[in-house]
Amino acid sequence: MKKVLLSVAIIAAMLGVMMSSCKKEESTQMKNGVAQAEQSMSPEEQKVLDFLSDYDAMKRGVKSEEDPICIEDARWYWETAMNYCHGFAHVVLCDMRMDTVRIPMPKTDAEGYIDYLDVMETYGNMVSAVREAYKSIEMKGKTLQLVIVSIEEGKAKDGGDDLIILMNTGSNSYGDSSMQAPSELPWYVGPFDKDDDWIWGLEGGSCDSTIMESDASDQLTLAIANYDFIHGSIYVPCPTCYTYFLVGPNIEASYYGNANSSWPFFDSGLLWEEVLTRCILGEELEMYYEEIMQHTHTENMETNPYGYYGYYKTEVLDWVLGDVPQDYHIIRHVVQVLYATRVWRNDNGNYPVPIDDSNEE
Question: What pTM, to 2 d.p., does this model score?
Answer without folding.
Answer: 0.80
